[in-house]
Amino acid sequence: AAVRPEVLPACAPVALREPLGQRGFSLLRGHPAGVALMNGSGPHDGLKGDKDARQNGHEEAEPGEDGNDQEVIVIQDTGFTVKICAPGIEPFSLQVSPQEMVQEIHQVLMDREDTCHRTCFSLQLDGNVLDNFAELKTIEGLQEGSLLKVVEEPYTVREARIHVRHIRDLLKSLDPSDAFNGVDCNSLSFLSVFTDGDLGDSGKRKKKGTEMEQIDCTPPEHILPGSKERPLCALQPQNRDWKPLQCLKVLTMSGWNPPPGNRKMHGDLMYLYVITVEDRHVSITASTRGFYLNQVQRHPFERIATPFQVYSWTAPQAEHAMDCVRAEDAYTSRLGYEEHIPGQTRDWNEELQTTRELPRKNLPERLLRERAIFKVHSDFTAAATRGAMAVIDGNVMAINPSEETKMQMFIWNNIFFSLGFDVRDHYKDFGGDVAAYVAPTNDLNGVRTYNAVDVEGLYTLGTVVVDYRGYRVTAQSIIPGILEREQEQSVIYGSIDFGKTVVSHPKYLELLEKTSRPLKIQKHKVLNDKNEEVELCSSVECKGIIGNDGRHYILDLLRTFPPDLNFLPVEGEEMPEECKKMGFPKQHRHKLCCLRQELVDAFVEHRYLLFMKLAALQLMQQKANKQESSGVLENGASPENGTAESEKSESDDGKIDDNMTGLEQVKELAETIASDDGAVDPKSREVIRNACKAVGSISDASFDIRFNPDIFSPGVRFPESSKEEVQDQKQLLKDAAAFLLSCQIPGLVKDCLDHTVLPMDGATLAEAMHQRGINMRYLGKVISFITKTPGRAQLDHIYKIGISELITRSAKHIFKTYLQGVELSGLSAAISHFLNCFLSSFPNPIAHLPADELVSKKKNKKRKNRNLGNVDNTAWASMTPQELWKNICSEAKNYFDFGLECENADQAAEVYSLQKITLLREISLKTGVQILLKEYNFDNRHKPTFTEEDILNIFPVVKHVNPKASDAFHFFQSGQAKVQQGFLKEGCELINEALNLFNNVYGAMHVEICACLRLLARLNYIMGDYSEALSNQQKAVLMSERVLGIEHPNTIQEYVSTRCWGSRTNILSSSFLNNIGLVLHGVMEYDLSLRFLENALAISSKYHGSKSLKVALSHHLVARVYESKAEFRSALQHEKEGYTIYKNQLGEHHEKTKESSEYLKYLTQQAVALQRTMNEIYKNGSNANIMPLKFTAPSMASVLEQLNIINGILFIPLSQKDLENLKAEVQRRQQLQESLKSGEQLEPEDKAPEEKEAEPSMPSAAIPLTQSSA
């Protein structure tokens, strides 16, 4: 088969200057190249298709109205179009932006369907070759409409390797194995399976001949109401296209490499060996003149890499296919080859810091900077993750190999790795190994915060925290020069021993002072070991080191935020009453518990409101006193002791809220005093001083609350002079701890009751808690609070999610230490044994030890240093379900302070109504375990649920900094605000602009782009552009699948929205069921429709209360289906229920009540007519004279109208006159708002509710439904 190179003609065996298909073996059959991929906008490239499609009418877009008109204009003039002329195809247009590099056009051409077979080419403008790394704006003569020619260049060995790799990627682009294995930022997407590959095709179904293809709408058994089955396989529909499109069986380096000298002289670079699907064996020469292929049609969003790797917790059984390119990658050092700078590894620290130093004066500069920062961060995260896994798998040599394993440190690819253990008793006073495990995440939060403040001249390290196989690895970029000197010499600010020796530095104080206001950190003095006062503007552990590059670095930011006193009992310190009531302070496992930044911000905001109200109250008293007796009373301001007391009374005093002028005066007064104007009279100064003192402000002239992060730190001493200040700080910390318990937790539960927050799984519950500044260690308290809430039944879903989160988190803590004792060869046996003990009903699962366990135990004594685990690698096998569940219950009690009432999985499922499959998903996501996609029988008492073969992989769980696109985000927010005010067109333009900017910074794939596309789709739908709406929504689904995962709550929401553009809050299952029920009603599947709608009615009654307007709507929907079935009695019964609710809630004259009343009359007439007919039949038998009865099948328009209502879209027809009145009203209100400048708008009281509701709306505009307007 293979041909020896010596006997090949000089032109090489298959020099592939023509497509392979013409040489007798068609590589990819039946897929025409160059088919349009994006909806209605020609053949777009993957990375920029969005940008092209977005440009509709952007030239005339008005500048944004939020003060930065200049910048908006800048960006709107920037995009321009160039023509690309590539050999063999028609020239085409490409939208580019001046900040891009030539390199990016290269990448676009390699991703495009009709040019993807070229990798080795240059771009030429007027015969001049463009520099790959030049920005487009720096190229002379490049302008709107310029023609760029694609000119093929001779291949080199490096280019040929890149080309082979590219071909492999194209051939593999349909194969999901990389996504299942979590490799190369590939992830899963199933939208094209559900739409039969019908993506972005203007929303029209493909026709077969002249007939429309019939779709089966019958829902599968397992989603019908009442079904107890929770199949796993249904999560991942098997894609028909994944298997058969294999084109080559083998593509590998030939054994004839490297080319001999005489062939090199003819331009041979290397030889490839190919076996095609038809079993044809071919040798291919890569010469300097190259080769090329056609490509498969696939939506670009399914191909593009995501910025951060997404891992799937389930995967089907895959056949392991031979892939020689991948094999070569795995065993050659990928370091030099994968990076684009040949022959050297990347200097991560230099890249991370240089991108921060880029200029940021105007919008284009900021975009370039943010884009560079984001790119370097995502690359660094990927490299750090790979390195951390290599460290734990034992593939990296330690830099201190002679020390004990836990103390070892590693350097790989210019990244420093350390393990989460307490080395050299560093954290002895803080909780030892437990503190050492928590410190990296606290440090990462600190890095995230300082990066967000973004002070020029202050640098942090690139930091990634990776949890893998039970170990925590911290990966950091390396400060230049730090490895050559001792830490003691390097640190010029802060302390290396938690406050015994402390040093400070004026430059660091100056830099940190800039961060102190946004971070609410107080500048303070501490004593060092020589009893000298040292001034700091951070916690003592925060170290300042000047690198050899002259940059000022800060590291060890684990105490950036103040301590959480609820979990830090201090002798002699009395906690507030609210804390004591809930059993605090409570001893925690470590002393590094900090308040979250969100809590600090919420607390300060709460205190600011208090400050304003107190001052307003005093000013009003002063006024009143003046009026009563002009000048009799000298000190009109209430004395200081009264201020503290008024703190409680003011919150009940509703008058202040109405009195805008009082608050306005305070604001003005505070600003005047702050600007040091001598014109303020002493009495007013006194008012502000008293209010400042009452709320704990550090300044007595203006409101300014800051925390001292060193209070209650073991080993930190304060000078005598700041005794009073320290006392105030202690009180502030106690107040903050009490605020969390008395305001934030009840606030979260209230939001859940109101359905403004709707967690759907553990991750979204954690997110909701974190947004309110509640740490996960309060989870037990949150659940306890829910059980005592009056509306407990309406919080049933939150309670279940909370309990399953509590159980899986406790199990995760145990699993972490359990895994540390497992050798690589025993991983799948150990994990399956743990899952059996955790979830299976089988009473005594037995672990299967790997066959070579005894051998490795003997060896182990010799290579103890190599293994990170304990010496005994079989301890895990002795675990039993009873022991595990006992440990879970004690962990829940110790860590979360919650008593679980269950001794095994079956009891837990029964007592708390949990699903075992939910627990399996949660534990897999939290620990990185990937299991085989199949149906598991958890309740079989005769054999265990999991076997070793069911555990496919274990992935790392990665925490990292997420750099933000700040300008794009501001545009997005402004757009949202405009939409809420009813200015849909302006909102749409701003959001389009935001989308452009997001694309500019993040590339094509990001969770924020997803939100942008969702909102655009909704706006397109409301404004009547349905095909564009569908196209945008499909992109949102694809993106959500790729960047968040296929069963993330957001992805579920996107799928529902694809059906009907659902509003963000309507994600309760009643809304899903109503949607399904209505669609089934529309296709006349009445019985199935009823099952869904009646279930939706039951759920709405449970979660919204039986008198809710949502329940009235549900009754109406059920009545309509009964009417279609001609069961008028049932229909009447349901409609009467709905009518009663409308009448009680909205009154008899409301439109909804009238509609319901009309419908009741109609139903009664129909029922009477039917009864007459039946009587006629009984009376006269076959001679009966029967009038034809009207049984109405639902019209598509009526079904669509109801779908819109359910999903929060309400169309209000307005005449031109209404519209003009409305605009005038909106303008009047804006002027009023500006004159008040307070952000609190006074509503005219006498306006009718319907009128108010319709106000912020445009012609036939859609407004989101609220709870009070069904």
TrEMBL record:
Location(s) in or outside the cell: Cytoplasm; Cytoplasmic granule
GO BP, one annotated term: intracellular distribution of mitochondria
InterPro entries on file: CLU-central, CLU_dom, CLU_N, CLU_prot, GSKIP_dom_sf, TPR-like_helical_dom_sf
Residue stretches making up the Clu domain: 326-568
Species per Swiss-Prot/TrEMBL record: Nothoprocta perdicaria (Chilean tinamou)
Family affiliation: Belongs to the CLU family.
HAMAP family documented for this protein: CLU
Keywords noted in UniProt: Cytoplasm, RNA-binding
PROSITE patterns assigned: CLU
Free-text function comment from the UniProt entry: mRNA-binding protein involved in proper cytoplasmic distribution of mitochondria. Specifically binds mRNAs of nuclear-encoded mitochondrial proteins in the cytoplasm and regulates transport or translation of these transcripts close to mitochondria, playing a role in mitochondrial biogenesis.
Biased composition range(s): Polar residues: 628-644, 1229-1238
GO MF annotations in UniProt: mRNA binding
Protein name: Clustered mitochondria protein homolog
SUPFAM superfamilies referenced in this protein's UniProt entry, alphabetically: Hypothetical protein c14orf129, hspc210 (SSF103107), TPR-like (SSF48452)
Domain of life: Eukaryota
